[in-house]
Amino acid sequence: MAKRTVGKRRGLGYRLQFFKRPWFRTWLSMTVLAVLMSVVMLTTDNEAVVPAALFYGAAAAPLAFAMATHTRTGFATSVPPSVLLGMFLFGGGISLALGGFFDAEFIRDLNSPEILVVGFIEELAKFLPVLAMALTGRYLAVRSGVALGFATALGFAVLESMSYGLQAALSDGITAAEGTLIGRGLTEPFGHLAWTGLLCALAFTSWQKRGKVTLTAGLVGGYLLVALLHSANDGLLTYESENPVLFLGYLAVAVTSYVLFRLGTRSLTLPTAAAQPQPRPA
Question: Which domain of life is it from (predicted)?
Answer without folding.
Answer: Bacteria
